[in-house]
Amino acid sequence: MSGPDRIVVGYTANESGADALALGARLAAATEALLEVVMVLPIEVRGGVIPPDTGYERYVKERSRTWLAEASATLDDDIAQQLHIRYAESFAEGLIEAAHEFAASFIVVGAARGGLLGRMRIGSVASALLHSSDVPVALAPAGAREVAPAQGVTRITAAIGTRAGSSAVLEASVRFARSAHAPLRLLSLVPIDLPSGMDEGLADLASSAHADEVLAEAQRSLPAGVDATVVTATGATIEESVRDLEWHAGEVVLVGSSRLATPHHLFLGSTAAKMLRELPVPVIVVPRTTTP
Amino acid sequence: MTQQPDHLPPLTEATRAVDGAEHGITKKGLSAGAVGLIGAIVIGISCIAPAYTLTAALGPTVSEVGVQVPAIILVGFIPMLLVAFGYRELNRRMPDSGTSFTWATRAFGPWIGWMAGWGLIAATILVLSNLAGIAVDFLFLLISQITGNPEIAGLAANPLINVTVCLLFVAAATWVSYRDMQTTQRLQYWLVGFQVLVLLIFAGAALVEVANGNAFDATAIELSWFNPFAVESFSAFAAGLSLSIFIFWGWDVTLTMNEETKGSEKTPGRAATITVITIVVLYLLIAVALIAYAGVGTGEFGLGNPDIQDNVFFHLAGPILGPLAVLVSLAVLTSSASSLQSTFVSPARTLLAMGHYGALPEKFATVSPRFFTPGYATIVSAVVASVFYAVMRFLSEDVLWDTITALGMMICFYYGITAFACVWFFRKVWWRSVRNFFFTLLFPLVGGVILGVLFFTTLIDSMNPDYGSGSNIFGLGLVFVLGMVVLLSGVVIMLWQWWKRPGFFRGETLTRATAED
């Protein structure tokens, strides 16, 4: 790929947008990538009821420019950035188009949708992206805007299961670790990936053996010069395991999607979805087959 | 958008860095090339909402002009067309979400501009409350038709139940509008098609009943129904006309969609023509059929009966269609729902523009960062419309009727100012071409004069306590009181804003201008 890596930030002028922007800036600073801050405005005439109004459309565009300029002013000057306004049927569609246009390596969006009592829920925008994007999507948890870009990326954790998709996660993590100059940690989710209802003792035995095997194989497949620590998730549930693990403040987690070819299937596997809800750090969801 | 009008706040260095205006991918997203002929017609018809409009306006119009309703419908279209031409010229030159407010300010300065904006907001808020009121009636009628229990339809007459349900309707419409959850084009095609079809069936069935001798008060159709000079007095004529302005209100959007329609340059003209022909034919057909069926007398189902005049379909659908009357309820309900969606947009956008230019608090200029709708202005419009409806419902038995009449007056007021704004704004270019002469001088001027005459005639006549539904306060007609309260409260708020934010009134944000070329 020629030129610097590019990161698309899906910006909205609210807290969730600020989270996305802060995470995007942090990732861009760590990987020396170019930040493409994109606001997606709805195409006005998508319904059949409200007549289009050029004047209002222009007003919203001007307003969005101000928003973008204000957002840009909060960023450090040394982060290379470009600001864009795009029109699309939906926010997700506009971001995916922009990511293709810039050949971006990630799309960053705020994941939160003002969950009750501090619990994070995946907002409709993030969830629409997770169901349709072929570009890795980074979800900024609520509060990501509090983390300074200088924090950088202190470690990258690749969540590896037995299911197909792991190799894509591994590849993406290696690439990301290199460009961010961050250590890599491989996390096996195997014990929790087993079907429920299996005999407990047997499961334990089988799973821990299997987990070690998967990790070992993952480690073997790493390109020369890349080193990784390994850790196996333990605990009865995903939620429990995630809580028990130790996380850096500057950590970023990569998980694979379980995108299936058939329609009406979630892009995000149930395991990854559960992790998302518990993780205190940003998560990047990698499609099963990333574009090289 | 080829030219950047000069009244925009200058772009700062930072905002200049934002790309997007001329970028390839963005072009696709611009609304240019987005609405086709059918799409424009559908938007036009659903903005006019013929099913809702007729059920609300037919009764009051009959009470003014008797059997000459068809004549009034035909004549009423003329001022609307003339003003719409001016509207189109202004929109082409100064596309702005503030429409009448911005244009009148540019042409006549801040004071008249402010009042034009106020007139627009008042008219749309009046129609919002009326729409919701009609929708409530038909909701209860629909439930009673489905359950076969006629008592349920009567519940709509209970003010407490009525106001509560009406407020729920407005709340739902606000929610939809705030989140910009529009009906999709495809669904809207079906809804509009359904609406037109039901109206045709309704008119057809009424004529069949007349032919079969089952009519309530069979009245022979005469050519004189189409003769405007057969109307008894000029007052009646003016009152009828100002009502018929209302029935075409919304049609102008098809003409102003010029920038956004796809296909040849003729698309907007064609869309507007087809829309208006459809509407006029429907209106004439229904007016003739219902008068032939029910007459204009004051009997139970007579169109002259004050008890049924504020919502004639509500009372006539059952006798004419029998079990199929449920279709009329559905058509009016869906028609009101679409109209609520499109109507909510105009006061909100005008309030937004007024906030933006400092004619109202800046809060009104807020745009929702998630939905890109004028959030604050939308909610304020909804609250005002709700309060207005609730107060009116307890004040007057015939709230729907009186609001429609007052509404016609408000439309005349702000459309009239808009027409004159067009004439004045283009004064230096009147003689540049034949086209300019007609579209920037003659048509809007004549349209404006007609609306002006209608406005003052209605205003003076409505002082009579017997005017309209006959509701009155201290011996003054309720329509007059309503109109004056609305306009004078506009003046009071304007003076208050002048004191709070003199900048706009000194012309600091929006300067007077004329078209130079």
From TrEMBL, chain A:
Signal peptide: none annotated. Pfam families: Usp (PF00582). Residues 5-140, 154-287 form the UspA domain. Belongs to the universal stress protein A family. This is Universal stress protein.
UniProtKB/TrEMBL annotation, chain B:
PANTHER family: AMINO ACID PERMEASE (PTHR42770:SF16), AMINO ACID TRANSPORTER-RELATED (PTHR42770). Pfam families: AA_permease_2. Its main location: membrane. It comes from Agromyces humatus. Keywords: Cell membrane, Membrane, Transmembrane, Transmembrane helix. It is a multi-pass membrane protein. This is APC family permease. It is found in: Cell membrane. It comes from the Bacteria. The lineage of its organism: Bacteria, Bacillati, Actinomycetota, Actinomycetes, Micrococcales.
